[in-house]
Specification:
The chain is an alpha/beta fold and about 200 residues long. It has one domain: Ribonuclease Z/Hydroxyacylglutathione hydrolase-like (Metallo-beta-lactamase, Chain A), CATH 3.60.15. The protein contains 5 helices and 14 strands. The chain is globular and about 45 Å long.
Length: about 200
């Protein structure tokens, strides 16, 4: 499996292309830019590597993560997947498939399991693969996502973080913004994970 990351848009949202070297099949996670010049850079990388995009997956419905759905969707004809609770947030194109906790997104030999991790938004999800987890805006390196936006909840994000903390320490974390990390690193150094009494 390979993972390529681009920070895109005004909020530098991490857009990921995750694929299988042997089959050249891939998915795009959070194409967060509606700027044509940025989207074209991602598309050029996809085309130059001969990748076939099978799905576009949104970790949640905020526009900084879904802004490129239209451009990439039209260019690749890939269906758009998002958790059912955040699907109403999409302004178009709309979701082709609703995701639920425990679902899987499979591309060739790559399987990403859907873990519902609400708190930043009602329909936030993380995607768990072999030794990797894409956490959207639930967990960052050294921080966590906001829970004071519409649909957010401090109680829900605490529960979601606890779900993530039972993953293996060596599992690599690919967040929605900022640098990558590992579950172990976050357990040791993320101040929000040391004490869940914060409000």
């Amino acid at each position: 499996m390979f993972v390529k990351m681009w920070p895109v848009g005004m909020l530098l949202t991490n857009c990921y292309v995750v694929g299988q070297v042997e089959t050249r099949k891939a998915i795009v996670i959070d194409p967060g830019t509606d700027r044509e010049t940025e989207a074209k850079k991602i598309l050029k990388e996809i085309e130059s590597n001969g990748l076939k995009i099978k799905y576009i997956v949104n970790t949640h419905g905020h526009p900084d993560h879904t802004g490129g759905n239209k451009i990439l969707g039209e260019a690749t004809n890939a269906p758009i997947l998002i958790h059912e609770y955040d699907a109403p947030m999409l302004k178009g194109p709309f979701a082709d498939r609703m995701l639920h906790d425990g679902d899987s997104v499979q591309v060739g030999g790559i399987v990403l399991r859907v873990l519902h991790t609400p708190g930043h938004s009602r329909g936030s999800i993380s995607l768990i693969g072999r030794n990797v987890v894409f956490t959207g805006d639930t967990l960052f390196a050294g921080s966590i996502g906001r829970y004071d936006l519409p649909g957010g909840s401090v109680d829900e994000i605490k529960k979601s973080l606890k779900k993530l903390m039972i993953l293996s320490d060596h599992m690599k974390v690919y967040p929605g913004h900022g640098p990558t990390s590992t579950i172990g690193e976050e357990k040791r150094n993320n101040p929000f994970l040391q004490d869940f009494s914060w409000m």
